[in-house]
Write a structure and sequence with these properties.
Among the domains are: 12-122, Tetratricopeptide repeat domain (Serine Threonine Protein Phosphatase 5, Tetratricopeptide repeat, Alpha Horseshoe); 541-658, Tetratricopeptide repeat domain (Serine Threonine Protein Phosphatase 5, Tetratricopeptide repeat, Alpha Horseshoe), CATH 1.25.40.10; 739-956, monomeric porin ompg (Porin), CATH 2.40.160. Helix 8 runs parallel beside helix 10 (196-208) and helix 19 (365-376) runs antiparallel to helix 20. Strand 14 (909-923) and strand 15 form a beta hairpin. A 16-stranded antiparallel barrel has the order 1-2-3-4-5-6-7-8-9-10-11-12-13-14-15-16. 56% of the residues lie in helices and 22% in strands.
């Protein structure tokens, strides 16, 4: 009867397989018929069934991919054809079809990208355009650019769907942006807490960052929403680690008393196969012995090794069936028997251990844990150590680390030197990558006592992989290899070692690039270049994004030739618009302006919407002195531009175009207009009052040349008399560079009661704002306007003689650091009465909190001889402490308060000075400034007090 049943079953299986094969062929033929008549939708439905039945065959995927192509669904076509190529890599026709589909698809994607870019140019606030470009870049395999476009999308759409976040997470993982991805996924799992896909992705990102507890929580949340979600299950397994399940201690010790002669055969066969892993004959004998004594778990492991080495050996399949049947049938039967015993007596220790053992053999660890915990209820901690240890084992193998550790802590308190307890505790720390120092302590102790403990060697190797100590990890791996190189867990640990070592090296190399990128973002391009140079010593075939970063850093340090070389390398591999743009800029800024014109013209033709290509094309024309072409492009760009920054940049470039010929000057006159009214007041305790008012008008001929005129009306008076004067001047200002300006003035001074005098001035000034400035001044004018002396007001009116002065002055300031300032001036005065004067002021100051500058001032004044008509000291010195407090400084208002206190050693006199200034900007091009200073010093062998004030405005348009 048994033989009859087996025969019927065998015939049934054969018939079923034959029928299935015939049915599959019929489905394929029907699908081909539909394809011939253009009914591709019906063909796809049939091919779906064909592929499900025969997933290992490339033919079904190939045909379905062609159907998708005919329907214009190129993305699905490419996906099917790629999968088909993996199954049949030698099929040339399949590869040709894939190349054709991908070419068409990529062309469509690029056109779609251009369309959305045009939409962005019209309205940059529409988020969906950035999203669609990001999708296209992802499908093109341009992952870095895809990430950038998704970033722009998320800036504009706070309500991105979970589908888009999932797609974005794939891009971030591809680019290695793990930290960034973890932050984004954390935000969206809170926004969409019922989406198991987001929880699963969040789990992977946190796991990759070493946050295993958070990862486990995330995977468990995903599985709570959708049980058996494969992605989350795999992630949970990885997050919890793969434990080494060594049952040999249990089985050998349990059966030692019952296995007298046969046990020696098992030991012998184990010893032989460990020495010679290729000895399949002895391994088969070992399996038979293990089955004989019902050591099914070990037999199952050995059969798996045999199946890999000899997949066609007919003797293996029956043995495997026997083992699996025994496990599924005999274990379950025995489980029922022992469960019945345990039901009658819950404190039956043997029954509890047997039930737990068989549940464990069937990998039902949850059930095994429940049985042992029920047994241990009410049992003191210092009793039933063997049951408690078994509970710790099953908890560990079930990835319930906390439960296992809790039991092991109890056991280690009772028996701290027990090597089994130390071994399992160390393994758990290795599996969940926590408490690695504790694991090292326990596992090292086990190794010292048991140098050939295979599990300890593998655990120590894994431990040192986690610590990136690959030399030590390799030492323990080599020791394990000598014991059993064929063991499944040895092979897994060996693979882990190779992967971890490669990953660590890759991380080290990537860290060099990341550090270079950070330095570049901080503006340290020289430091960044050093890092990128080092990075490229390790990368013989770098990716495009790394090459682009390298090119940009070289551009930053003005290595234009190297930039061109790198861009050429990128473009030789595959055309890239951004690389071509960067190369064109390198040509322009490197001095090859003719090539730059050609390159930017190509880029502008390729993308007519590219503002950048057109702008730099105009700049290239400007450098090559094709000013008309440059001006035409600038004007065209200005027509539709709304970005204020771009408008300002274009206008600046237009201003830089030199005016050619008289016609050009006339057509653009005035280039600019500036008007500055002014009022000054000065008085002292010697009855001098000096007042003046007037203004200045400047007209720009070009961007670097202005002409102007100034008028000043004033009076010098004492309490008993007054004298008026008028100054009229013409001015010429030349901006030699943006930081260096030269000014010239010439005019006439008219004094009431005196004949006219010629006056003139020259100023040369170089200023690098907030860093360094130096200015030289020459001024030929009346001495009374320089020396502020009442005796000079009515000097020799009878003979029409006035004392004139030639003033030479050098001024400077210098900031060696942002918070430190040096400043001062030297003044030389040559008077027509034959006297000479020198003034020197030097200051050093430091910036303190609340925008307060404070420091020391030295002042020295000396004249060739003393004069009774004006103050002309001999070897006058003062030492002062000064302060300048910037109370407010913003776009519309500037307020500062200043002062100083000093000492004159020669006269034992204390000098004082206090002042304030305010500048108000009611509109963009108008500023109004007022200043006032009150002071007391030593002059004419007495105390000298003065008040000085001014108010002036400047309006430019």
């Amino acid at each position: 009867m048994k033989h009859f049943t087996k025969t019927v079953f065998f015939l049934f299986v054969i018939c079923t397989l034959s029928f299935a094969q015939t049915a599959n062929d019929a489905i394929k033929r029907e699908a081909l018929t539909h394809m011939q008549y253009g009914r591709y939708g019906e063909a796809i439905d049939l091919l779906n069934k064909y592929i499900s039945a025969l997933p290992h065959k490339a033919e079904g995927l190939h045909l379905r991919g062609l159907c998708y192509e005919k329907r214009g669904q190129y993305e699905w076509a490419a996906l099917d054809l790629r999968r088909a190529v993996k199954l049949a890599p030698d099929d040339q026709k399949l590869r040709e079809d894939l190349n054709r589909v991908e070419k068409i698809w990529h062309e469509l994607l690029n056109k779609k990208i251009e369309g959305h870019k045009r939409e962005i140019a019209i309205n940059p606030n529409v988020a969906v355009n950035y999203l669609e470009i990001g999708k296209c870049k992802k499908n093109l395999g341009e992952w870095k650019e895809a990430e950038q476009w998704y970033d722009e999308y998320l800036k504009r759409d706070e309500n991105a769907s979970s589908d888009e976040v999932i797609r974005y997470s794939e891009i971030l993982s591809k680019n290695g942006s793990i930290v960034k991805g973890e932050k984004i996924l954390k935000k969206y799992v809170e926004k969409y807490p019922d989406d198991q896909r987001l929880w699963s992705r969040y789990g992977f990102f946190t796991m990759w960052l070493g946050k295993n507890k958070i990862a486990i929580m995330a995977f468990e949340n995903a599985l709570a929403l959708k049980p058996y979600f494969k992605e989350a299950q795999d992630g949970l397994d990885q997050a919890k680690g793969k434990p080494y399940l060594f049952e040999w201690v249990d089985t050998l010790s349990r059966r030692k008393a019952q296995q007298a002669p046969p046990e020696f055969n098992i030991d012998k066969y184990y010893r032989i196969v460990r020495k010679n892993a290729e000895d399949s004959e002895t391994r088969l004998l070992l399996v038979q012995e293990l089955i004989k004594y019902e050591r099914m778990e070990e037999a199952y492991q050995q059969l798996q090794i045999l199946q890999k080495k000899n997949p066609d050996d007919p003797t293996i399949r029956p043995l495997m069936d026997s083992v699996t049947t025994f496990r599924d049938v005999v274990y379950k039967k025995r489980l029922v028997d022992y469960n019945n015993k345990l039901a009658l007596n819950p404190k039956d220790k043997e029954a509890a251990l047997k039930v737990a053992e068989y549940q464990g053999n069937l990998t039902n660890y949850d059930s095994a844990i429940v049985v042992l915990e029920n047994y241990l209820q009410g049992v003191p901690d210092n009793q039933e150590s063997d049951v408690r240890f078994r509970l710790a084992q099953y908890s560990a193998w079930n990835y319930d680390w906390e439960r296992a550790i809790a039991q092991l802590n109890i056991l280690l308190i009772q028996d701290p030197n027990n090597l089994e307890y130390q071994m399992l505790r160390g393994q758990i720390s290795v599996w969940n990558t926590s408490d690695l120092d504790l694991a090292e302590k326990y596992l090292t102790n086990v190794y010292d006592k048991q140098p050939e403990n295979f599990a300890a060697l593998l655990s120590l190797s894994t431990l040192y992989c986690w610590k990136d100590d690959f030399t030590t990890a390799k030492k323990f791996l080599d020791l394990a290899e000598k014991i059993d190189a064929t063991d499944t867990y040895f092979i897994t640990t060996q693979q882990l070692y190779e992967t971890a070592k490669a990953n660590a090296e890759e991380r080290r190399i990537l860290d060099i690039r990341v550090e270079g990128g950070k330095l570049a973002m901080e503006g340290d391009c020289e430091g960044a270049l050093t890092k990128y140079d080092e990075y490229f010593t390790y990368k013989t075939a770098p990716e495009k994004t790394a090459l682009m970063e390298y090119a940009e850093v070289n551009m930053c340090v003005k290595n234009f030739g190297k930039t061109v070389e790198i861009c050429n390398q990128i473009l030789e591999q595959e055309y890239d618009y951004n690389a071509a743009m960067l190369r064109a800029k390198a040509y322009l800024w490197g001095g090859d302006s003719l090539t730059a014109v050609s390159e930017f013209q190509k880029l502008a033709d390729e993308d007519s919407s590219s503002w950048e290509a057109k702008f730099y094309l105009a700049e290239s024309y400007q450098v090559t002195r094709n000013y008309d072409e440059a001006k035409d492009i600038y004007d065209l760009l200005l027509e539709n531009e709304t970005d204020s920054t771009k408008i300002k940049l274009i206008q600046q470039r237009i201003e830089w175009i030199p005016v050619v010929g008289i016609k050009g000057i006339i057509s653009r006159f005035p280039n600019s207009v500036g008007f500055a009214p002014i009022y000054n007041y000065y008085s002292d305790n010697f009855d001098l009052i000096f007042k003046s008012w007037g203004g200045r008008l400047d007209l720009g001929l070009t961007s670097f040349l202005t002409i102007g005129t100034s008028f000043s009306r004033g009076d010098l008076s004492k309490e008993w008399a007054q004298r008026n004067y008028t100054i009229l001047k013409a001015h010429l200002n030349i901006w030699i560079t943006s930081k260096f300006v030269a000014s010239f003035g010439f005019g006439n001074l008219t004094y009431e009661g005196y004949s006219n005098r010629n006056v003139s001035d020259i100023t040369m000034k170089y200023e690098n704002k907030d860093h360094f400035s130096v200015a030289g001044i020459y001024d030929h004018t009346d001495a009374a306007l320089v020396l502020y002396s009442p005796s000079l007001v009515f000097y020799d009116i009878a003979t029409d003689y006035r004392i004139l002065s030639d003033l030479y002055k050098l001024m400077f300031y210098y900031y060696p650091r942002k918070e430190l300032k040096f400043s001062g001036y030297y003044q030389f005065l040559d008077l027509t009465d034959g006297n000479l004067g020198n003034d020197l002021q030097l200051r050093i100051g430091r910036l303190f909190e609340w925008d307060i500058w404070a420091g020391y001032e030295y002042f020295y004044s000396n004249y060739a001889r003393k004069s009774k008509f004006y103050y002309s000291p001999s070897d006058f010195e003062s030492h002062s402490l000064w302060l300048d407090w910037i109370v407010q400084n913003d776009e519309t208002l500037e307020v500062d308060i200043n002062g100083k206190v000093g000492y004159v050693p020669a006269s034992d006199f204390l000098i004082r000075e206090v002042g304030a200034g305010i500048t108000y900007k009611p509109i963009k091009n108008l500023s109004i400034t007022g200043k006032i200073t009150l002071g007391s010093t030593y002059r004419y062998d007495a105390s000298y007090r003065f008040i000085s004030s001014s108010i002036y405005a400047y309006w430019s348009f």
